[in-house]
Structure formats: C-alpha cells, structure tokens
Amino acid sequence: MKINQTFEKHLRDVYYLREEIEKQDVHQLLDKFAQLGNVMPSTAPIYFLIDYTKSKYLVMTNSTMEVTNRDPREFLEGGIPMLKSIYHQDDFKIYNEKVFPENLRFLESQPQSTHQDFIFTYNFRIQHKNKSMVPILQRSSYLTSEETGKPLYSLGMVIDISFLKKDRSIYHSIERSSLATKELLEEHYYYPYFEDSLLSAQESRILAYMAEGMSSKQIAWKLKIAENTVANHRKNMLKKTNTKNVAELIAMACRNGFI
C-alpha cells in the first residue's frame, strides 16, 4: 500500500476486490458509534456504512434530512459519486490528497487485526439543498482486508457542527478508542486556503520574542496584551504549522526563514 495513495485511487484499486466482511464486525462497530452518538451535542447524528468496493452506501440514516435536507435514499441510490457532488471541492481536495493518505499510512503501520480499534475524525463542508455550506464532523472506522490491509468498508457517524465551527480549517485526528477509554494518537490541521495558514503580524512578533527565550508573561508585558492572548496565539501557530510544541515551532520557523 502506497502512503501517498489518494482516496479516489483507493476506490479504483478496491473496485475488483470481493472480500467478505463478517456481519458481526459491522454490527459491533455500528453499536460503538451509536453509543458515542448518544453523548454528542446538536442534531441527531447521521450513521452510515460505505462499501468501498462498490462505491455505495449500505446504511444511511434519516438525519440527513436535518443536516442537508436530503432524503437518505439519495445517498443510498447515488453512492459516493453523489456525496462528491455536494462535498465542498476545496475540502474534498484536502481529504483526497492529505487526510485519506494519512489514514492509510497509519493503518499500514498497525497490525490488520487491530484496525477496528481506531477512530478517524475530520471535518468538512457539505452542501445543503438550499445551496449553503454546512460544516460537519465525521468520526469513522474502517473494516479492512485481512490479506492487504486496504479499507473495504467505512462506518461511523456525522454531526452538524455549525454551532461551533466558524473558520475554514480542517481538523484531523486518529485515536484508539473503546467505550471505556480513548487515546489520542495523532492530530493534523489542514488549510484549504493558503492565506488561512499564514501567521498574522502579531503572531510573527510573538514568535520572534519566543525565539529570544521570552516567557508568555514577558511577551504580554512587551506587547501590552493579556497573557492568555499570547497563549491563544501560540496555540494557533502550532495548528497553522502542524508542530507539536514550542521547540518544534521555533526550529521550523528558523528553517523556513520566518524569524
């Protein structure tokens, strides 16, 4: 399996596979997502099951009416091509070229027998029937081929996050999860629009002071802003640069001539 394999190429590759998945595995995963959905806010979650080998939905619940004003039968009959037609194209490009390949890379690093233990989360925008774009969050798992480790089915849930998602960034995480425990393994941030990933003038100033070894308190005094504001700028810089900590952020900034 190639690490840089896109979602669309994966669909072409698995089209001819006819490997069967145990129905018990499907029901167990659907039950897990149903219980997770009971503690999620906003509208009722949409639950789905996708067969990648046929590019079609096997399950799609009625909550699609609440989120997109579309009958679930439109998805069941139209399959993945129908989803792509209402998927925000800039967001789909990120999913196709970044998010899905990262998921494949991660799965390739894990024993196939453990693939069902992981939940893959990301957000994207989908078109409502009134032409507005609705930000949604998807949490899903894969049922993979015992022979190749390739995803054959994806199942999980989707919720409307209009009440909290106001920017255009895409959050992507991978976690090991059960009903009792959750362990965050990876986090990534993507920006469909390049300008959203650029550091602001204030962030650049704060980064320069951080590189000089100044504390958040010292930077706040220097710029006459609240210490919490400095902390928020630091979090935003970590997201925009996909760095894990201040040391990594400063090293990246030095390598790229930001400071």
Distance between the termini: 39 Å
Which residues form runs of ≥5 with pLDDT under 50?
none
The Rg value, from CA coordinates, equals: 20 Å
What is the succession of H and E elements? HHEEHHHEEEEEHHHH
Strand content: 15-25%
Strand neighbour order, sheet with most strands? 2-1-5-4-3-6-7
CATH homology group of the largest domain: PAS domain
The best one-word shape is globular
Oligomer: single chain
> How does the major sheet shape up?
7 strands, antiparallel
- CATH class assignment of the largest domain: Alpha Beta
Count up the domains. Answer: 2
Please state the second-level CATH architecture of the largest domain: 2-Layer Sandwich
Number of helices: 9
Task: Find the CATH topology of the largest domain.
Answer: Beta-Lactamase
Compute the average pLDDT: 89
Helical fraction equals 40-55%
Structural class: alpha+beta
Overall strand count: 7
Organism: Chitinophaga silvatica
Keywords: DNA-binding, Transcription, Transcription regulation
GO biological process, one term: regulation of DNA-templated transcription
Pfam families: GerE
What do you see in this structure?
There is one protein chain. This protein is α+β, with helices and mostly antiparallel strands and 259 residues long. The protein has 2 domains: 184 residues, PAS domain (Beta-Lactamase, 2-Layer Sandwich), CATH 3.30.450; 58 residues, Winged helix-like DNA-binding domain superfamily/Winged helix DNA-binding domain (Arc Repressor Mutant, subunit A, Orthogonal Bundle), CATH 1.10.10.10. The protein contains 9 helices and 7 strands; from the N terminus they run ααββαααβββββαααα. Strand 3 and strand 4 form a beta hairpin. Helix 7 packs across helix 8. The model has no long low-confidence stretch (mean pLDDT 89).
